[in-house]
Amino acid sequence: MAKRMRLDKLLANMGFGTRSEVKRAVKQGRVTVNGAVVKDFGMTLDPESSDVRFDGEAVVYRETIYVMLNKPQGVVSATEDARDRTVIDLLDPEDRILQPFPVGRLDKDTEGLLLLTNDGKLAHELLSPRKHVPKTYEALVRGDVDAEDQAAFKQGVTLEDGYETMPAELTIGDKEARPEGIHSRILLTIREGKFHQVKRMFEAVGKQVVYLKRVSMGPLRLDETLKLGEYRPLTEAELDALLTVQTGAGRNA
C-alpha cells in the first residue's frame, strides 16, 4: 500500500518552512500538486509519486540521507558540541533537516572520510565489532617505520591498557629527514575502532602519529575531489556497496 502523507507535513519535513509557514503558503496558492494549484494543506498524497511544487520548485521526498564528508581538522565528529564546531555545522540547512549523524568518529585533529546518515541500521552494521569493517588511514609518523613494525602490526600489538589489537596491514611509503628526525609516510588498514587506535598502535612501537587521514571505510573510498570541509551525497553505486555490507546483498538482489 502506498504511503500517504499530509501536504503540510511533506513540505515542512523537506525544509520549505515551519508547519504554519507552509500552511500559509498553500492558502496563498503557491503550491501545486500534479500541475494543479491546491489550497488544502491537509490533503493527503503519495509523496513518492506525486509531483509537488513550491513556487515552481520541485519538492523531492526523502526519508534517508547519505553524505560523504571530507572532514577537516578542528571539527568534532558529533551532532552538537558546546565548545567546538561539529561536522553537522558543515552541512547546508536543507541537509540537516533529516537529522543525519556521523557514523563513528574521527579525532578532532584527524582529516578525511566520514559518512553522515540518519540510517541507524546501516550505521550499526558498519560499526559493529562483529563485522570487522576495514578502515584505511594515511599517516605521517615521527620515526623510522620499518619491517619490524610491519611484522608487529601483522600480529597485532598490545596497547598501553593491555588490549591486544587485531592484525593490521601496514604499508610503508616514503621517508623524509626533518630537523626533529626521520618521518615515515604509511598506509594502515585496521578492522576495529578503539579510541585513538591508530595513534596508540604507533605509540606501542615507540613512534608518534603527527598527521592522520582516513581514506576508506569498507567499500567506501574518499572522493579526492572533495576539498576539506566539502561533502556530497553518495552515488547509487556507493550506497549499494554499503548496503551490501549490511545485508550481504545489494538493494536489487
Please describe what this structure looks like.
The structure is a single chain. With 253 residues, this protein is of the alpha+beta class. 23% of the residues lie in helices and 28% in strands. It contains seven helices and 15 strands. The strands form three sheets. Strands 7, 8, 9, 10, 11, 12, 13, 14 and 15 form a nine-stranded mixed sheet that branches. Strands 3-2-5-6 form a four-stranded antiparallel sheet, with no helix packed on it. A two-stranded antiparallel ribbon has the order 1-4. Strand 8 and strand 9 form a beta hairpin. The model is unreliable at 249-253 (pLDDT under 50).
β-sheet strand percentage: 25-35%
Shape: elongated
Rg for CA atoms: 23 Å
Straight-line N-to-C gap: 22 Å
Q: What class would the helix/strand composition place it in?
A: alpha+beta
